[in-house]
Design brief:
Elements: H1 54-59, H2 66-90, H3 98-121, H4 127-152, H5 156-176, H6 184-211, H7 221-252, H8 258-287
Helix pairs in contact: 2-4, 2-8, 3-4, 4-8, 5-7, 5-8, 6-7, 7-8
């Protein structure tokens, strides 16, 4: 299973290269019978009973189910929330302690990034590694949210959480209703847009380091709001990609351990969306 996040990418469920074939599991169907070379890595399924393999996947011992994905995602996101709340309460950001809290937050962010990169290059998911990533990500988010609420824009943290939940629910509804169709073209467009977004973020960061300001202006004012909205839309697109890959994994009878990768990808996407919503709301409140 492959995470659809802009940085962390893994193998897809399919690698069909024939005419009209999908990419990374898009526009393809599970196949019955023996393995087809270059296609679904889980297609070596003598247990496939129907043309789409769904019945076989559901009855196969050790195959990933939707319940597995939901429970692993709840555990991973729960770890993020618990550590975020604890870091908010135990790491004060008042004038006397703000530098120490900032240092802990930056250190946690770096550790989370390293853990995420390690997991992204591993062939199999490691639950302890994924939960450790979630814990350090939560520490970073807790301190950052506390700083934003205390010094920048009070009250926006709750709004950002509700906004993230709304984006998740709206994207899931659009995906289930097939208003969003995840195709090869959709995948390529989203990945190209994400690469452009990340490059602009990196350039803006470099300019801000040398100018000691906001760089190219992507973090404040009207341009910052527009840039943040683009980031939120990209996050919604990545959610759709994640939903598609979860659906493919269940349909193809992927190993149960792959549900940890689904939880990992969904957690990163939701963190992305939360940060972008938090930034947009902070800018809006400061401009009023």
């Amino acid at each position: 299973m492959r995470s659809s996040n802009p940085v962390f990418s893994r193998r897809g469920f399919t690698r069909d290269t024939g005419a009209g074939a999908g990419y990374a599991g898009f526009n393809t169907a599970p196949r019955a019978g023996g393995a087809a070379v270059g296609t679904n890595p889980y297609a070596t399924n003598p247990y496939a009973a129907d043309p789409y393999g769904r019945q076989a996947a559901a009855g196969r011992s050790g195959a990933m189910t939707m319940d597995d994905v939901v429970s692993r995602t709840a555990l991973t996101l729960g770890t993020v929330v618990v550590t975020a709340v604890l870091s908010w309460l135990l790491l004060p950001v008042d004038a006397a302690n703000v530098n120490r809290s900032y240092g802990i937050a930056v250190g946690a962010a770096v550790v989370a990034l390293v853990l995420g990169l390690i997991q992204s290059f591993k062939r199999k998911p490691t639950p302890a590694l994924i939960l450790a990533y979630a814990a350090f990500e939560g520490i970073f988010l807790g301190v950052l949210s506390s700083v934003v609420s205390t010094y920048i824009a009070s009250g926006v943290v709750v709004q950002a959480v509700l906004g993230t939940m709304a984006v998740f629910a709206g994207t899931l509804l659009a995906y289930k209703m097939r208003w969003i169709r995840v195709t090869r073209r959709f995948y390529r467009f989203v990945m190209a847009a994400a690469m452009g977004f990340l490059i602009l973020m990196a350039v803006n960061l470099l300019f801000s380091l040398f100018t000691h300001g906001d760089g190219l202006g992507f973090r404040s004012g009207g341009l910052g709001i527009a840039f943040g909205i683009v980031g939120i839309l990209l996050g919604a697109c990545f959610l759709a990609l994640d939903f598609k890959q979860v659906e493919d994994g269940v349909s193809y009878g992927a190993p149960r351990e792959e549900s940890w990768l689904a939880a990992f990808g969904l957690t990163m996407t939701l963190v992305w969306i939360y940060l972008e919503i938090l930034r947009v709301l902070s800018i809006l409140q400061n401009n009023n």
